[in-house]
Design goal:
alpha/beta, 3 domains, globular, about 500 residues, three-stranded antiparallel β-sheet, about 10% strand
Amino acid sequence: MLTLTSLLLATLALPAPPADITAERVHDIVQLAFPDGAPFEVDGQGSREAFLAVMESELFLHEAVGPFDVYLMLADGWAKARDGEKALKSAVKGLAPTVEVMDAHFGGREGLIAGRRLPLVLTHADRGEGERSFDQVVALLDWAEADYSGWKQGGNRVYDPTLLAGLNVRTWEVQVFNLGHDFAQSHGKSFFEHGLGYYQLAHVAARVLRQGTWGMVPPWLAQGITDELDIAAYGEAWVGGDWWERQTPGWFRPGWSGFVPEGSAPPPPVTGPPANLAVTVRNTGDSWQHRAHSNTRHWENLVADQKSEAPASFVFMASNESFLPRDRALGRAAVHMLLDVAAPEGRDGLLTVMDRVPSQPASGMFDADPITVAFNKALGGVPEVDELEAMSMEEMLVAIGRPTIIDELKALGAGEMLRIPDHREQAQWLYRKPQFNGDTRLRIWNLILEAEYFQQLAEWKHLGAALDAGMRATYQVSKRYPSRERDREGAAAAFWKGVQGGS
């Protein structure tokens, strides 16, 4: 199984484009934006201000949609202003449903997302035909990242051949799209109507999870938050699949509506008998992935699954590191409860807890809460997690069955650190110990991370058990999706009672 670390190392191993190519692209777009001379030094260090200055130039159309600043480059496929204006109008209309959702969850004054402007840059380049507007914007962003979001400082790339061949490139704050890419083209107007919004909401979810907290993000949580924001905005999920068959006497053709994964072909054009002939439509395939079920969060499927020999379970996912279509459905339903139906009153909800700007002290360990701690706060406190967090490092490692880490730390001369409970304080202890050589220091650092990794795995099992209990209790009072207000109130009460260990 690929880990985040292995993926990062693989990315770092990719050959970087020559620096002069990147610089050439930057010069090209700055010259297009400011033919009479740029208001900044192009050969100097890039910055957020320089990037936004180019975006605000006449080379780009611009319109704000909630917290999103949409910029459209008038070049290549949109070299004609009327084509660009039409595309921008479509993009703005498609993003409009996200505004209410973003305001509901990130309407505060200050945070990772709250109170910030998030640029979305659209280009339309056929790279096979030599069109380079997408490459130019990405090169400009790469240059600007020297003083922008900290994306590159974290070891991530921006101007990279592999990324340039794809649909989009992102940093912590900016997303750049090439709507001339085959994937966007295959979806036609639906990409404007829903796809862009989905990608923006996914970008927001990824940021609060990856920056606002620290540690491993379970797939069900990452996808659950993204999907819930998406469904709340658009009424159904962008990611899903509906397999269908259309039949008339003497005529049959299979097709697929909904999400078409990259590399797959959309359904072929409709051919066959005249449209006035009787047509029957039948859904087939995996019911857990039907988009038509997403607006009710697959509720009846999940209720029925409780009678199976092994119902979908967060504990099972944490214990086996599994993630199947029904696991995604369960993640959607649970996050829906946390963010909407059973949103807590009088304390911070899940997204509010995570919408915090992290800092990196001299020790090198970011000060963001462990993701299990943040999630535990949103649940109101699971006793088993609270107990693990209160233990010293040594007590915790004994409790979760990882004594070999204790032995190795003592052998390295770091036994004193075992009294410290929190990984951030452990890193601070290490920072203040100059007697360790480089190799020893690195090994102790990695053991701190390893211990935190295993602690979070253990805590996700306890958090999963609380969520499983909450969802089981909810299904008992709501056999169908709780759409009416009184049903939602009953579902919320049952959910929290289950989470808190009530019967």
